[in-house]
Amino acid sequence: MSSTNPDTEDEERTEPKDADTLFEEHEAQLNELLADVDGPEAPEADSHLSGLGSGVTRRDMMKAGAAVGVAGGLAGCSGTQAFGDANTDTKNSGNVPDHKVPPGEHDEYYGFWSGGHGGDIRVYGIPSMRQLTRIPVFNREGAKGYGYDDGTAEMLEEAGDYTWGDSHHPNLSETDGKYDGEYIFVNDKANGRVARVNLKYFQTDAIVDIPNVQSVHGCCIQSPDTDYVFANSEFRTPIPNDGRDVNNPDEYVSVFSALDPDSMDVRWQVEVDGQLDIVDSDKDGRWVLSSAYNDEEGVEVEEMTKDDRDDLKAFDVPAIQELVDAGEYEEVNGVPVVDGTKESPHNQGDNPVVRYIPTPKSPHCVEVTPDGNYAMVAGKLSPTVSIVDIEKLATADDPADTIVGQPKVGLGPLHTTYDDRGHAYTSLFIDSQVVKWDIEEAVEAEKGSEEPILGKIDVHYNPGHIQAVQGMSVEPAGNWLVALNKLSKDRFLPVGPIYPDNDQLIYIGNDADDETGGMELVADHPVYPEPHDAIFAHKDKIEPAKTWDREDYEGEKEFVTEENSRVERIDDSTVEVYASVKRSEYGLRDFTVQEGDEVTLTVTNIEGSQDIVHGLALPEYNVNLALAPQDTRQVTFTADKPGVYWAYCTYFCSALHLEMRSRMIVEPAD
Ligand code: K7E
Ligand code: CUA
Fold first, then answer.
1. Predicted confidence (pLDDT) per residue in 330-365, tens digit
2. Which residue stretches of 409-551 are H helix?
3. At 56, is the secondary structure helix, strand, or coil?
4. Hey, how many other C-beta atoms are within 10 angstroms of the C-beta on 83?
5. Over the range 40-65, which residues count as b (16 or more CB within 10 Å of their CB) and which as e?
6. CB 3.0–4.6 Å: which of 89, 392, 525, 630 could bond 548 by disulfide?
7. Residue to probe by mutation, ligand 1, list 168, 171, 194, most atoms within 8 Å of CB
């Protein structure tokens, strides 16, 4: 590996660039990296998918040569140079298992992707990368009738009635640190919400709009037993944000929120100094760590990037819960808010409830190792990853002493994931690479050392999150890794100016002593904008229902049979219509209401067979129900347009699907 430079860290600390220079250099460097791809280029012979880091690297190196120089100035690292000219003959070693899954066979793992500002969760099979379904969460979605039946529409309304969200971080619920297949919890960065997806039905069953926060970025569950769900507010605002202190940014705050995973109520919040970004839990139910940029508490980019260090916040959750139980809080908008600022009385003495740990430099993520020993904080504007020793959080006198290693990994480190053999993998946004490194070696090496690096692989291009199978749990699988690349540039047929992202599948099951450390690129996969993170679980951990269990809605909604399909007039202006549905008919061939009636339609799919789904759509009434077998849905609307309306089935369910209709007659008022 190339030379180490332990001085970098000090140089960076003593001579920070001024904000304008830093910002300009960063922009110029990004522009260079993204510049001048006019059209798809024929792949060079040696830049085939499995030809790692060859043609593409050289081409980009030509273009980005100057830029790398700038970035070197920015972050004090020569980054790709050690690898750019390396051996290009890195065709598939033959040791990679086939990622293609033959017709009729199943993938080994589920992958759950957040959909970014699409607001959904996408479900993929790993390793085939086939998309299996999408789960609408913060978005309305016609294909699943989500947001159209009364139940889901009311849930979305009560959670703020926004029509979209920005989902970033899906988390699987755990028992004993292992995925238990019950729920996914996911944040909405845009509107400060957290949602829960029930994995029995792959359906969103709760959304909470968290008081006192504007945006939620970091989101995690508490390991090992999902006793809490945690949410970081990224944007500082006055709280309550009701018009007070709008021109007084010193009064803006960020809070850390703890939710009850069953009721989805906010149990408490902690106000902090600085800001919060991403969050992860230790594996013992005590410490929860939040990374941060903008501890400067700036409102403009130059201020936000001014300082050389931003504080990681480590929350002592049981200690905070004790304060709340003892009434040591202020209630704001109905939520107990504990003072976790540096000056707080709770943070004096030997056992502060929030520890502030300086980390370089506007860092991005924090991810805890599968054994729970360390948390990795990727430096973003620093080429390092800071290794926090979690055991030391309770004992270190100086919080800075909890940082026990700081390997220099490359430019723009954002996210880290893990295999089952003591290796960490970090995404390098600016270098467009994934770097593999040895965790214990990095703890032993001097800070700023490149010695722990085992290899780097080019990805295409600009990776954000990377995830290895079960790398966030106590049971990492150590075989597949996906790099969620923000840009695909020239990798796919052009589809207009909004390009797909590119998720790349990388095999990490080999530890070869070569330039990539054995990592092999296996597949490109275009994705609709814009996933941020993903989480993977072995298929045996997830047990989806094949049909609805009607006990799950008994007492709330009727199970409508063919026999009790009927129209009930409740009063002069209210009508209830009940209809069953099966191949290829509705329980009512027609139903009549009066113009102006409020109509509640209750429909049950009485089929008992898996995969026989029916719909009920009513043209010009915006009615769109999707009904899985044994499910009942309701929709309420006002019959304000007289005429004949054909209710029809939206799922092509049988040879008589087209004939499968019912007629709604709306008689004119006079
Ligand atoms: Cu790095 Cu929102 Cu996890 Cu995007 S976040 S990349
Ligand atoms: Cu039921 Cu088509």
1. 999 999 999 999 999 999 989 999 999 999 989 999
2. 439-444
3. helix
4. 24
5. eeeeeebbebebbbbbbbbebbebbe
6. 630
7. 168
Please give the full DSSP string across 74-123, using - where no structure is assigned: HHS--TTHHHHTS-------S-SPP----TTPPPSEEEEEE-BTT-EEEE
488 CA from centroid of ligand 1 (Å) = 17
H helix or E strand, kind and range, residue 319: helix 317-325
Contact 375, 289 (CB under 8 A): yes
Cα separation, 530 vs 512, whole angstroms: 33
- Cα separation, 516 vs 564, whole angstroms: 66
Q: What residue type is assigned to position 14 of the chain? A: T
Amino acid at 662: S
302, 493 Cβ separation under 8 angstroms: no
Least confident of 14-23, 163-172, 447-456: 14-23
CA angle 210, 536, 213 (to 5 degrees): 10
Pocket of ligand 1 contains residue 278 by CB under 6 Å: yes
How wide is the angle at C-alpha 31 spanned by C-alphas 30 and 32, nearest 5°?
90
Q: Is 213 in the pocket of ligand 1 (CB under 6 A)?
A: no
Q: Whose CA is nearest to atom 2 of ligand 1?
A: 168
Q: What is the pLDDT of residues 121-148, one digit of tens each?
A: 999 999 999 999 999 999 999 999 999 9
Report pTM.
0.88
